[in-house]
Amino acid sequence: MNGWREEGDFSIFITDSNSYLLSGELATKLTGRYVEINVFPFSFDEYLKMKGHLGISQSGDIQAELRSCILEGGFPYALRLPSINDKREYVRNLISGIYEKDIRRRVRIRNRSVFESVVKYVISNFGSTTSLQNIADDFSKIKEKPLW
Q: What's CA 92's distance to the chain center, in Å?
């Protein structure tokens, strides 16, 4: 989703993820004539407040609510979807779009299977220190055909 609108003496650009429209390349061209606002998923507190605002019932069990927040991804639109499967599909598509458009296409990744394996590794090991050596060591343990 990209949007643009003229408002008097200024323009408003709304982009999803890290798209080119307001990436570092364009920001350099604008040289100080822009304001960038990063939008992040909800914190747990914001998640609970938005559920209340939307009239979505809460279980009263704080751990169950935290699990729901984690499973739903903390994205505002996901709260409006009717089932957990719809919410998970939305989050999956959102993350897939980020990796596809903002990384793979932008830096012209040619070996898609290696790229997808690295993405899976990074997501699966999000709490660990990530280095090229860690990724190479993990891939060397795979008994299937080599990725490289």
A: 9
* Gap between the Cα atoms of 11 and 30, Å rounded: 12
SS3 14: strand
Q: Which stretch of 45-49, 77-81, 127-131 has the lowest confidence by average pLDDT?
A: 127-131
Q: Which of helix, strand or coil describes residue 3?
A: strand
Q: Which two tokens stand for residue 2?
A: 């990209």
Task: Locate the domains of the chain by residue range.
Answer: 1-39
- If pLDDT is split at 50, 70 and 90, which confidence band does 44 have? very high
pTM of the model: 0.58
Distance of CA 121 to the CA centre of its chain: 16
CA distance 82 to 5: 32
What residue type is assigned to position 53 of the chain?
H
Residue 20 CA, distance from chain mean position: 16
Name residue, tokens 């914001």: 46
Q: What is the pLDDT of residue 21?
A: 46
Q: Does the pLDDT value for residue 17 go beyond 60?
A: no
- Angle at CA of residue 127, ends 90 and 132, nearest 5°: 100
